[in-house]
Write a structure and sequence with these properties.
The protein is an alpha/beta fold. The chain has three domains: about 5-190, Lambda Exonuclease, Chain A (Alpha-Beta Complex); about 220-285, no CATH class; about 300-485, Ribonuclease H-like superfamily/Ribonuclease H (Nucleotidyltransferase, domain 5). The chain contains 19 helices and 17 strands. The chain has helices at about 5-10, 20-25, 35-55, 65-80, 135-150, 175-190, 200-205, 210-220, 230-240, 245-250, 255-260, 275-285, 345-365, 375-390, 395-400, 405-415, 425-430, 440-455, 455-485, and strands spanning about 60, 85, 90-95, 100-105, 110, 115-120, 155-160, 165-170, 260-265, 265-270, 290, 300-310, 320-330, 335-340, 370-375, 405, 415. Helix 2 (about 20-25) crosses helix 6 (about 175-190) and helix 3 (about 35-55) crosses helix 18. The longest helix is centred in the last third of the chain and has 31 residues, at about 455-485. The protein starts with a helix and ends with a helix.
Length: about 500
């Protein structure tokens, strides 16, 4: 198996997992990329094409056999060609007395005087050791391959980030990149797969999610205990604690609180979280829910269910909320309302102003009614939009005062035998069933981007209706969970 930048990416993306390279190397089947992953690929290609278009005359090396592209890359560098697109390099590195081939295809080589800059395009807004270290290793690898081919290092390694800014990456002679490749290769050569804890957020976008989650459930993995972070799970397994039952046998609240696990570049005691982790372990082991005390729900005749849909900044010029969904439930249930951002240059502002107008009408009809949402995304975005577009009428500030986050209320009151307290999980406890075949935040983002890109008005309207239906069901699910919480003893 050749090693490449993709080898490093397989360890880090969509999340850090040392098992994924092993599964890929051993031909394990994985799910097809979802709509969101496909959108990311398309936007990445567009970002690269946009930068390419601004470079003038370019020698395109993207076609031809691998061997032809390698030879042509050398020839054009010797000729001093100004810009090379998709050049190809190869060399070898030693791994356990064997020479393993390493290949690399940076997006661009750009001549600077008598030397070259290696440049690559990424949708990410950051490229550092804390955020996307795999980008650094990739550029370091390209720099090393360039040096092996040309006999001198590149004058610079550069990343074109998602906001079109260019960041320079320091070059260490390829030491870190080669070390990373060697470690990954040795892992893939193991006869049995290495252990990597499953995690609800960690595994969501991975093609091996179904495979790994089934394995975790089959073996009653302690990683399924909500609140047991990756470092704690690894530390527990090092102590022979692999299941929730073993966790309960070995620890009480005091001893687990003193237990240390990796935390970044240091270690940290479990501390005050110990009691809740043990409660979660008991629920997971018993496969049953525990009610700790009645949920601290606000008392009112009516409530606004409130949910936003937004595009993350790496896919847009800024964090854009494209849908502000509200619906009143209770004694006087109202109609579903959605303030949708327009597709023109002033669409973002219009969507915000429409949301404020709809909120004002709700307050007019119902007084200081609670706005119920799930997690803190809604309040975070309201504050951001107050800074962006203002709040002359103080309606946004009033909404903020009336916001009630249902997630911590749920989490504080009940212990679920589930690895997540996401709405999509908790709504099943409330026996809420969706009608849509496809849904979810990533799905909504992908569909919205399709709506933005299409020039077919009827197709756009159809897509937006799907997104509205999904948002409406999110509101219904939030209300169903609230009603369920009210019914608990």
């Amino acid at each position: 198996m050749d090693l490449s930048a993709a080898t490093i990416y397989s360890l880090h993306c969509p999340s850090v997992c040392e098992l994924r390279p092993w599964l890929l190397a051993h031909g394990e089947p994985q799910a097809e990329p979802g709509a969101y992953q496909q959108v990311l690929v398309r936007l990445g290609q567009r970002h690269e094409s946009s930068h390419l278009a601004g470079l003038g005359d370019v020698s395109d090396l993207s076609e031809g056999t691998f061997a032809e592209r390698i030879d042509r890359t050398r020839e054009l560098i010797e000729l001093g060609e100004r810009v090379l697109y998709q050049p190809v390099f190869q060399s070898t590195i030693p791994i356990d007395s064997a020479e393993v081939r390493v290949v690399g295809i940076p997006d661009f080589l750009i001549r600077d005087g008598s030397a070259y800059r290696v440049r690559d395009c990424k949708l990410s807004l950051h490229a550092d050791e804390e955020h996307h270290p795999e980008i650094l290793r990739q550029l370091e690898l390209y720099g090393w391959l360039f040096e092996q081919t040309v006999g001198m290092p590149p004058i610079a390694l550069e990343v074109v980030l998602g906001d079109s800014s260019i960041v320079e990456v320091s070059y260490d002679g390829g030491v870190r990149a080669i070390r990373a490749l060697q470690e990954i290769k040795r892992t893939t050569m193991l006869d049995t797969p290495p252990y990597s804890p499953v995690g609800w957020s960690k595994c969501q976008a991975c093609g091996f999610r179904a495979r790994c989650w089934a394995e975790a459930e089959k073996h009653d993995d302690v990683a399924l205990v909500y609140g047991a972070d990756q470092g704690l799970v690894r530390a527990l397994r090092d102590e022979g604690v692999a299941t929730p039952e073993q966790l309960l046998d070995r620890f009480d609240e005091a001893t687990l609180a003193e237990f240390t696990r990796p935390w970044g570049n240091r270690t940290q005691r479990v501390g005050r979280k110990a009691g809740r982790i043990l409660e979660q372990a008991r629920a997971t082991a018993a496969k049953g829910m525990t009610v700790l005390f009645p949920p601290a729900l606000p008392v009112a005749e009516n409530y606004v269910m409130f949910d936003l849909e937004g595009v993350p900044p790496q896919l847009d010029e800024f964090d854009k909320v494209y849908l502000w969904g509200t619906q009143v439930f209770g004694a006087a249930t109202g109609d579903y309302q959605a303030a949708v951002s327009g597709f023109g240059p002033d669409g973002d502002r219009r969507g915000w102003q429409e949301f404020l107008a709809q909120s004002g009408a709700i307050f007019e009809a119902y007084g200081d009614i609670p706005f119920i949402h799930w997690h803190h995304y809604e309040t975070t975005k309201i504050r951001a939009y107050m800074d962006r577009h203002g709040d002359d009428s103080d309606l946004a500030q009033r909404v903020l005062r009336n916001c009630v986050d249902l997630l911590p209320i749920t989490r504080d009151a009940i212990v679920l035998p589930d690895p997540s307290y996401s709405l999509k999980v908790v709504e099943q406890r409330a026996d809420y069933r969706r009608t849509l075949d496809e849904y979810g935040g990533d799905w909504s983002i992908a569909r919205y981007i399709e709506a933005v890109e299409t020039e077919d008005d009827s197709a756009r309207d159809e897509i937006m209706q799907e997104i509205l239906d999904y948002n409406r069901e999110d509101l219904e699910a939030t209300w169903a969970v609230m009603e369920w919480l009210k019914s608990l003893p």
